[in-house]
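Blackboard transcription, Thursday session:
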Amino acid sequence: MRYRLRAGSFAWMIQRISGVALTIYIFFHLYYLSSLRDPVKFELLRKLLDDPFVKFGEAGLLLLVIAHSFNGIRLILLDMGVPTRMQKTLFFIAALTGGIIFFIGSWPILGGIL
Amino acid sequence: MKTYNFKIKRFNPSEESSPQWQEFSVQMDPMERLLDGLIKIKDNSDGTLTFRRSCAHGICGSCAMKINGKNGLACQTLIKNMPERITIEPLAAYPVIKDLVVDMTQFFMKSEEVLPYLINAETPPERERLQSKDEQQKILESITCIMCGSCTSSCPTYWSDKEYLGPAALLKAYRFIFDSRDRAFDERLGRIIHAQGLWRCHSIYNCVEACPKEIDITGHITELKRLAVKNFFKRNK
Amino acid sequence: MRKEVFEWFFLRITGVILLAGLTLHFYTMHYNGPAQTGPYWRAFNFIFLLSAIYHGFNGLLGIMIEYVHSRALQKIFEGVLIVTALALTGIGIYILSV
Ligand code: FES
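(Written on the board underneath:)
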């Protein structure tokens, strides 16, 4: 559908895509953890986590979580009665603080390889 | 006088299989509106160009269309605020009848679903059912709606889910739910809290940006959501 | 119909729980926080797991009904999603009981 993309619709798209991705991630995360009891498998998966690509994946995961949470907070605030005229401002505040927290948070993950 | 390029999406479903773009250049005075441009095209270049219009003063809601990728009224769009190239399409998500005229049956059916009329069995007073100033203020903004269909057609949920009531119908529900003269609160709430009602609104704000009457539609829908939740906990106590 | 009201509200509640939980989860995992033992951690992990699965799958259900239009298909997808969610909850509880 060709329609002008605005802050609100952009936020919605991000929320939807990150939400689906994160739910799929729960699946893999639990699968990974369920091999805790099998030492051979666990060792294999733990080695995989040292791979720089997986590290980037982890940073990407953090980005998804932050995007989804910060826009989630924005949506809850709007649902609680913050007026509509604030929605774009809230979007930019969420993007800014989210970005800063992403940089702080991804340091322990990427610090070793960058 | 300045020349504007109108790029119009034309489609006659009974004769063609797919829409076609056609361009017109039109001489426009800065004081004119987009609708004047369309009328000029119809009068001077191509009489088959089809669009709806009636009041030409932003009151009847006939001339809603997608202008440069955003829904609005042609008669309320001043040409001096427009770039030289103007793209005009019919409203999205409604079936096209011809060119810029869309079939709004679905849209009106949605309003029908929320009972768009006063329900009050009490005998009316001799003159009229009075409201206080505050009671009127509460619904004043939602009364401004002219049912042009811009909002529902701009809603991404409605694009993919035609069963969704859509912003216009929910706004109509608000208008009667918060009307102090109405007595069908439970019935009305029941008609909007199902899966294809309030909860399909994801606060995208396309409707607010599209509304030519500048109604804060999402704000009204959000208030209805809060009302539904409050009502839920009150009943379960 | 009343169900939908509650679901919408609970999606927001679990969202807040998840935000708090994730912060803690991330902190303990990447900044070498406290070891996750004892009844409080157990309760926290359990609530965290349930919230995550509820939030995720309720979100998916909501998205699904916007793109799947036949009632029958909606029911099938709903069934599949609920079974997956229950299976994941089972796996989660198994992990937590290690
Ligand atoms: S012609 Fe009536 S609203 Fe534009």
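Lecturer's comment: The radius of gyration of chain C is 16 Å.
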